[in-house]
Amino acid sequence: QAGELGQQTGHAVYVVGGFVRDLLLKHPNFDVDLVVEGDGVAYAAELARIYGGRYKSHPKFKTAVVILPDGQRVDVATARLEYYEYPAALPTVELSSIKMDLYRRDFTVNALALHLSPERFGDLVDFFGAQRDIKDRVLRVLHSLSFVEDPTRIVRAIRFSERFGFRIGGQTDRLIKNAVRHSFFHKLSGSRVMHELRLIFEEKTPLSCLRRMQDYKLLAAIHPLLALTPSKEAVLLEVENVINWYRLLYIEPQPQVWMLYFLGLCTGLDPEQFAIIARRLNFSKRQAAEMVALRQQIRDTAQGIFNWEYHKGPPSELYFLLEPMPLEGALYLMARNPREPLQKYVSLHLTTLRHKRVEVTGNDLKALGVEAGPRYADILRRVVGAAIDGLAVCRAEQLE
Ligand code: ATP
Fold this sequence. Notes:
The protein has helices at 2-8, 18-25, 40-51, 97-103, 130-136, 146-149, 152-164, 170-181, 190-201, 206-215, 218-222, 230-247, 257-265, 271-280, 285-310, 315-322, 327-336, 341-351, 362-367, 374-391, 396-399, and strands at 13-16, 32-36, 54-58, 63-67, 73-78, 113-115, 124-125, 138-139, 167-168. By secondary structure, the protein is of the alpha+beta class. The N and C termini lie far apart (61 Å). The model is unreliable at 88-94 and 392-400 (pLDDT under 50).
């Protein structure tokens, strides 16, 4: 129907990019990107109208996002027939607009399109040998200036290569090394680098991606303080273990895993060094302050738990130490202390203590004649503490 709609307005419509790649790879992918050879924004408006969805356009880029009633998101772009501006003089070739659109993409395997127009529905458009590359399991850029144009593609190459088990083609590998040697990354804005790092952290195997980045000296190219050291690797390996452990508990909400990997990559940095990294990656003042505070809270809480263990405090004290900590902080604490009883204490908190609920409310206290005020919080806290102390025995030796 999306294609028929294009036909009514006289424009060819294609589904492009990752969706088509994943279709050939038989990987599930629900991100639909459409390209219209015509007015993409008008097309999106019509698509939204017909399906009863919403749409939001970016007229400057001639793109739009349609949200269908079931929540499905469809990105719509316009294929334009402008000449592509190259940083250096390459022969300009007259290209059809879809070919031009695909030529702007990062890798051959992402430069595929599928016709949606009724008369050619399902025809694959492959100008750059993507099907062959998918068969050979290789990632190749479309031209030799690809990384000059956009160095973030280097990180994308590693991400896709790890995700699909594709090798990076010989020429593409040389271009990456050349780009790193010529410090292309220095020019790149912190927000774009951070965006790509976050995508890496959200992959299934972030650590192997980071190792590949290290092999290409890419982390140090972003900033020397980000280089992967053996001690960072050890922490990141534990981060991976802890995340996998937590996933298997199926407790909602799940943590923001990127934050744990980011903390791991910043292991060993003092606050000033951390501030340098936060600036390099364009963190807002607030974001940076939150991260600094979280790192401090993790350190203080670890100290608190060691003290608690030393003076054999009650379980409720453990609960109150960990309760203010964001989930990401608690999990990172586990990853940082893999062979300590501390890890067991934090896991006890996450799996049991923090789910303890008490039935007493402020209204009950009112009914008992307790005067409203700050005492309420104190009393309720003591009720929670008493409930927890009645609930759990949690010295390390008893957890074995
Ligand atoms: P994922 O499965 O991670 O979402 P994807 O291939 O769908 O992968 P997106 O980042 O959603 O990737 O981008 C959609 C498409 O846009 C890609 O398939 C690629 O063709 C193109 N693209 C994205 N980023 C770039 C880039 N930096 N340079 C060139 N083309 C890009």
